[in-house]
From TrEMBL:
Top-rank lineage group of the source organism: Eukaryota
Domain GH16, chain residue ranges per copy: 9-248
Gene Ontology MF terms in the entry: hydrolase activity, hydrolyzing O-glycosyl compounds
Name assigned to this protein: Glycoside hydrolase family 16 protein
Length: 250
């Protein structure tokens, strides 16, 4: 591994600033509550939150806090594979979409700093996935119940690149970053460079990603599932700050 940083030029544009977690008005300017399709996904948590309910989705002094707490008596998830719901949790998705088209945007840089739980059954993430259909998907930070982070690039359900690295558990914020760039001469493919604390960890081939609009999610995510069971018996939190999205034009 080696220390490297993507170069941001004066022509590049910040489309999601580090100030988006300063207060609820800026949160709601740049982010929307829950998933675009609603409250449920593929794990045992149901997302809860809106402009007047901040129990699971809160901001203060530039930090977003997403919480997950046990719950009982809920109907199963409405999303395949329809698991039982054991938690209420929080998710937000960015209003801006990520779309490397090779013309207006030759790339995007997505970065942020996080304190993540690593207990069995916790499954927070910062990730990109297709607006229309699935895949593509790029997991910039995915913490699945261990002291590790997964950098994943899903080209198809069966064609996946994964780079797994140790995650610091010192209780401090640590950064992850993904730099998506068009492959010169290609009309369909990108590369994605993944970083932990500004150290390059992997460069994945993102075949077929060009021109595919993607949502950016921050989630305390679905709990259990791929992160193991049983999950925590109490409340856990996932925190984010300085989340920035920059559209690269050169």
């Amino acid at each position: 591994m080696f220390l490297t940083n993507a170069l941001i030029s004066s022509a590049d544009t910040v489309v999601l600033p580090a100030t988006s977690f300063d207060c609820y008005s800026t949160l709601e300017q740049y982010w929307a509550y829950l998933y675009p399709w609603g409250s449920d996904h593929n794990g045992s948590a149901r997302m809860v939150g809106n402009s007047s309910d901040h129990k699971y989705i809160s901001v203060s002094e530039g930090v977003l806090t997403l919480s997950a707490s046990p719950v009982s008596g809920q109907p199963p998830s409405t999303s395949n594979p329809y698991p039982a719901i054991h938690y209420f949790s929080g998710t937000v998705h960015a209003n801006v979409q990520i779309n490397v088209d090779g013309i207006d945007a030759v790339g995007y840089q997505v970065e942020g700093e996080f304190i993540s739980p690593t207990a069995t059954g916790t499954w927070p993430a910062i990730w990109l996935t297709a607006v229309n259909g699935w895949p593509p998907e790029a997991d910039i930070g995915e913490w699945k119940g261990t002291e590790q982070n997964w950098f994943n690039t899903f080209r198809t359900a069966n064609d996946v690149s994964s780079t797994i690295v140790p995650w610091p558990t010192d209780g401090n914020f640590h950064s992850v970053k993904a730099v998506l760039r068009a492959v010169p001469g290609s009309t369909s493919d990108l590369t994605i460079a993944y970083y932990l604390d500004d150290v390059l960890q992997a460069i994945h081939n993102a075949a077929g990603f060009m021109g595919q609009a993607m949502w950016l999610y921050l989630s305390h995510f679905q709990m259990e599932g791929s992160s193991g069971s049983p999950g925590p018996s109490g409340t856990t939190i996932f925190q984010a700050r300085n989340v920035i999205v920059t559209k690269l034009t050169s």
